Amino acid sequence: MPNRAIFAQIIIPVPVPGTFTYEIPISMVERARVGQSVIVPFGEKKLYTGIIASLTETPPEGFKIKSILDIADDRPTITPKQLELWQWTAAYYMCPIGDVYKAAVPVGLRPDSQSKVLPVREKEPSADQLGSDESAVFAVLTRDEEATIEQLAKITKLKNIIAVVKRLVDKGFALITEEVRESAKPRRTKVVRLSDRLADADMLNRTIALLTVKQGQALRWIADFLGADAFRGKTVQMKIALEKVPTTPTVMKSLIDKGLIIEDTEDTLLPDTSCGIQGINELNQYQQQALDEIHKQFETLQTVLLHGITGSGKTEIYIHLIDETLRAGKRVLYLLPEIALTTQIVQRLKRNFGNKVGVYHSKYSSTERVALWRNQLYGEHPYPIVLGVRSSIFLPMDNLGLVIVDEEHENSYKQFDPAPRYNARDLAVVLAMQHKAKVLLGSATPSLESYFNAKQGRYGLVELTHRHGAAVLPEIEIVDTKLERRKKLMKQCFSQTLLSSIDNALSKDEQVILFQNRRGYSPFLECTECGYVPKCKHCDVSLTYHKGIERLVCHYCGYSVAAVTTCDHCHQSTMRLAGFGTERIEDELKQIFPQANIARLDTDTTRTKHGGENIIRDFQERRINILIGTQMVSKGLDFGHVSIVGILNADNMLSFPDFRAYERSFQLMAQVSGRAGRKDKTGKVIIQTSNPENSIIRQVVANDYQAMYDTQMAERTQFFYPPVCRFIYITLKHRDRQTVEDGARELFGLVSKVGGITPLGPTTPAINRIQNLYLMNITIKLSKADTMQSKLGLQQAIDFFLQLPKYKNVMIMANVDPM
Ligand code: ADP
Ligand code: ZN
User: Fold this and answer.
1) 384 lines ligand 1 (CB under 6 A)
2) Considering the chain, what is the average pLDDT of its residues?
3) Cα angle vertex 411, ends 405, 414, to 5°?
4) Ligand 2: distance of its center to the CA of 560 in Å?
5) Residue 188: closest CA among 335, 358, 384, 331
């Protein structure tokens, strides 16, 4: 028994810089480890789950400190490498490590006073399953349906409430959630497969000989039913097994109890998961060359960029690399930019790797995310492949061999709000460095950042310029909307050319994708008499009309008002719709092509857990003829029957006020175009623009990434913009416009004195008020060398500024490497 307390630095999920010192009482000293979750009191009567970052025997001097209340779990929640990655992220992205913790760890693993607890209704605990504290909490939960931990503490008067709740959760009688909507029961189906012990037909026969006749028959039937892949992890739904196999639940259970049959759960909405493992496709000659080249470059470089045109089969190359990595006994992290994409990729991966694939993203319930986290950290069978979106970069990783970043140019790898404003693509390189693993970045339209890194020799570069098989790149036709409008050939926002192409495709039972970079019905309502446009009460933006709900909605803060026909200004009934969003295009198209099945893919139609997946599957299985969408339709989806892709308005992408507008327009248009014409069919892309001579439009038509790169890089170099340097956007926010403007000037003066940086501004952003706060920006240019040092200086300047009495209520956001 130790004879004195020790001290710990604890990471707490609050937006305050640094860690916090707590005492570890004598009774817990022997159990305490770095990485463990501990329950700590913080502020006024608040409880948090913190993480031990370090331990020391030296007591802090000069101030009284609190003790931790409990060690939540003897097994660490994070590994030393994760802790190191968090520290790196906090320093690089200039944010509190508490924010990194919050982004990294699912809420079920870090309950605090405000977390909601729900009872699991399907389970009724028997008297001996719960201790008296747990029973007391469970009783409150079943009575009140749900309660926050704070409420539970008040009612039960239990001091160690979080520990009690966690025990209830671990036993499966309660769950902790951020959102109340979350269903307590994950939508998963039971599946069964043969145990790994049954390695081949020989082993199966010998085992059957040792069983009862009924058990033996059942096992034989299941093996036969699974066919050739029975010994490679192929699964069948329990329900189907019981239907098709002449056996009873009792016999099945006895086989499960003997460990011959393994019970598992799989996502219900992935129909392919139970149809087994196929061999991996053989690569075509170009893919094989690319793979050989990747291997060669990996010998000397950690990161390789695979630049392969759409449909060239990058995914096939990933699959070969994954297979090799698994054979070498290492694990793979596969990053995707968008949740809606996961279904297609998961299907493809499961076909090749069966149940070796784990999926992790924010539309999975907290319970499911916690389960995967624990499984990867100390489960018996951690998934060798984890597929996930941005936040899966923070999963516990052991034995990592390869990180794949698919569609690496996508800006959804970057978290914009809240902090940490990290880019998972860039963290992938840091993560891989920790594990001595390799990184493969893949894209048909690489970010200038990655291509520049490759040209500088920091990354390898492999190019793939042939589409697979007979498929060729689509033909691109430009429609000059100015000209068509003059000739009265435009019908709303559709040119004659586009409409007749759609008509033609429909008549041949081919599919159509239409792209518009704006959701909602119509960008705004406008008064034809006085020109008045309704704006958000809290933000400096016009409201977007949403027809389905008959309301005007702010896309920045969600504020909405009922849509009215009378003008607030001149009080006449002269409000009319201006512009086109995806919802309006869908509406108008339904009138022009009443016989077609038309669907829409944007953030409004994909809010639910499986909304996006369902639409994509319906389109894939050709129950939908025309799919209208925002940039979601551009992202790496592979459809076989799309002959027409329409880009309705290239102009509003090109005129977006951002230095990356041209690069991004090229990426979007090239990616959307890439959805047309696969397999043996040639596709056609129609781009509507009033500016056909624009250099980007011409580069898209010529599919000339290199020309785009060269012209854009020339500008970036001339003006010293990323990727030649780094940017940090500093945003100041305050309720009072004068305070924020004065503050910006003051802060600008302070940061000007920091070495190694050049500040620009201060400027009033295009949208200068969001949620009632006025905004001012300062842009910091950092030369690439010595960034950590300059950031430290920058942080000191900001800290000094925030100490000034006049500005202590100003909020400051730093966005490092903004996109
Ligand atoms: P990318 O990701 O580069 O756009 P995909 O990997 O999605 O390309 O490949 C496009 C299509 O071609 C897919 O339907 C894929 O199954 C098929 N394909 C590509 N390479 C092969 C191959 N070597 N053997 C069989 N099919 C392939
Ligand atoms: Zn708003």
Assistant:
1) no
2) 88
3) 80
4) 8
5) 358
